[in-house]
Structure formats: structure tokens, C-alpha cells
Amino acid sequence: MLKGIDVSRHQAVIDWSRVRSGGIDVAIIRTSYGMKQTDDKAIYNIEEALKNGIEIGVYHFVYADSKEEVEKNAEKFYSVCKPYLDKIKFGCWCDWEYDTDKRNGNKFNKEQRTELVKVFCEKCKALGMPNVGVYANPDYLLTKFGNLTEYPLWIAKYGKKPSTTQWKYIVWQYSSKGNVSGIKGNVDLDEVYTAEDEKTDAPTYIQNRRVLKFTTPMMQGSDVIICQKILQKLGYNLGSSGVDGKYGKRTEEAV
Questions:
Q1: Which of 118, 130, 178, 179 is the least buried, fewest Cβ under 10 Å from its Cβ?
Q2: pLDDT value, residue 229
Q3: Within a 13 Å sphere around the CA of 113, how many CA atoms are in the beta-carbon half?
Q4: For 226-242, how does the pLDDT look when each residue is reduced to its tens digit (9 = 90+)?
């Protein structure tokens, strides 16, 4: 599990070196909202987070009342993120919330709202954005959205950890009142799960188009773990080390 935060212009100017020294591994950064607006701290946050060794995800707050406007939201999201697509390892997230529905006059029913979220996600995918997913709280998941399980889930639920059998989530936003070195005031806190975590039925993060091969020093990481788990399910013997995230000789032979 990685320690994460999510931020926007509301956190003002962040001292990212202090954030990293405070133990934060991942930052999910708001890049944009609506059809035309860029978060005025987006580029600073992306570049400073990366410069200080913090992996990133990105999110867009949707304001739209038609399919056409949803697609324009997606295009705006892409336009801000385009220079960083190969560096976004922890999701490109669709954020549709109460304020979205308030702005459009609560005009959509559950089925219509779900379809528009899918339009946004599919447009982002068509544009080449990696790991496109949905941010939602239990109220939206249970009453306002239909089936969106084809997309990774970033769940917002404060207090008790959400059920992993009810929801297959990759990121859990567990507080809006975090205190992190380098950030003035409160910040949202997240747990970010990777293949090393025992959430075997959940989607997992992999690096886009990464080629695994036997090298010196040997390759290691989440991608290797995913590969090893697949090999084990297919009946290949990986030796005493098993699923260890290291692309060694036994894994190479099994492949």
C-alpha cells in the first residue's frame, strides 16, 4: 500500500520536497474542470511532485449537461495532461459529484448519468489517456450510478474501510482532514493499492507497454508480480521464491 494525497488549487502553493520527506508516495492532482478551465496549480503540482520523486495520478471535475459537453470535458482533461501521459502511473480519474448534478439542475436519472460517465471515460481512453477510472462515494455507487465496474474505482469513504467484496477499488480516500508536511491546512488522504497488496480480485496498476525481460540487475515491481500470478494460475512452477516481484531465471523459464 502506498500513502497518497489528492490536491488542487485549494491547497495553494505546496512545498513538494517536504511532502515527499513526510512519507507521501502518490499525489492525485486536479488538472482541470468543466469544458475550459485549467486548475491554476495543475502544472506546478505535476512538475514539482515528479521532480521530488512522487508518482502521480490526475483527475478532472466534470461540469456538463449533455453528451457533447461531457466529451468537451474529456478533451479539456486530455489537453492539460497530454505532455505528461507517460508519467501518469496512478490513474486518470473522472470526478462527477453533487456539484456536477447541481449545476445541471439534477436533470439526469441513474441510467443517463451512468452513460455520461462512460462517455467521458471512453473519450479519454480513445485520446490515449492511461488507466481511466471513476471517483465516487458510496451514495453515488449505490443510488446515482449504475454498473461502472469496467473502470478502476477510486472510492471516497471516511471512517471505516469500505468492503473489498462489495467494491473493487484501487484507491481509498479515507479523510478530508489530513495534515501533511508542506501543505497548509487540510488535505485529502488516500491509500493506493498495488499488486503487492492482497487485493487479488481488484484491478492493479501496471506501467503502460512495459516489456519484461531477464536482465542484470533483474527487473522488479508490480508488473512482475502480475506476470508471476498469471503464470502460477496457468500451472507453472516458479520455485521456492514464488511470487516475489523479481524477474529471475525461474520466471523467465516459465514465460
A1: 179
A2: 82
A3: 27
A4: 788 888 888 888 887 78
